[in-house]
């Protein structure tokens, strides 16, 4: 499933021939193609900003960038709807933006801010929004989750599909093959996608996999290899796959061949954004001035939202914040909903709110904590003691 277009002869006028127009129309509306360039440029500029913040040590922990792999996220998003579901591994910034996140909320999350898309708790690997189920930090663990999402869609007769993505580093996981089996057994509406960027962390695929043709790994699931550096190829493939799956044919397996190591000169020349721009200008779909205007708009928008994200406040250091969004409401362990521990959390939360507003506070309370050795101690102490307990993990 690779799209190949002949270049325009030297000296010829830039125009899109009827044949070329019909070919592109099979992929998408010709007038909407510049939006592909805009979206890829937006992801690239955002990732470059994140890289800069990481080098300044403003972003701590992991920071998995998708620079060079923008065509996969953009091509897939333009081929599905918001009613379709998508789940991926930890290299998820671009998918988060395409699914509905904002640059400000994504950068805010990377900076650990309270107004980040996951309230500053998830960081680079755990971002979520409507119809996007992450961003998952455990290699391969999102594949069975995505299969379960597809099962839910089938069970509810939703008529939509699930895009279930993972990297070549996860392709050898047993849970991936178990998911293949369940998906085919029940003919679930799921498109599995292996983003093969040639390396799992620092290990080349040849050193880790006995067979590197990942699109053949499904055995009883049809597979296709897609040029993941060509957004038009990705778009054509996902639209074909969605029709196939929605027709009740069961799952599909795609291997997106892409690359993330930009320091390799041969891959720099295969950049998905510059190549698309060159072709669109060459075909007469987009003028050079229009491309420059898009570049300028993207640069200004990203700079503005990154600046706003850096001004976001840090989260308040409250104990109760640690337990937010952990359980579905009403499913918490009983000791979290009632009893002394719930009261302790409430008291500490109130104390820190007052400290944040007033600078000092004293607490009088009758809360008693039962330890594992059944010893009891009174919680009738000044806030300095409460803060000490929090700092020591108590």
UniProtKB/TrEMBL annotation:
Q: Which InterPro entries match?
A: DH_E1, MTH1187/YkoF-like, PDH_E1_Alpha_Subunit, THDP-binding, Thiamine_BP
Keyword annotations: Oxidoreductase, Pyruvate, Thiamine pyrophosphate
Give the protein's cofactors.
thiamine diphosphate
* One MF annotation (Gene Ontology) recorded for this entry: pyruvate dehydrogenase (acetyl-transferring) activity
Q: Which GO terms describe its biological process?
A: pyruvate decarboxylation to acetyl-CoA
Enzyme class per UniProt: oxidoreductase
Q: Which residues form a coiled coil?
A: none
Query: Is ATP-binding one of the keywords?
Result: no
Q: What is its EC number?
A: 1.2.4.1
Please name the SUPFAM superfamilies in this protein's record. Answer: MTH1187/YkoF-like, Thiamin diphosphate-binding fold (THDP-binding)
| Name of the protein this chain belongs to | Pyruvate dehydrogenase E1 component subunit alpha, mitochondrial
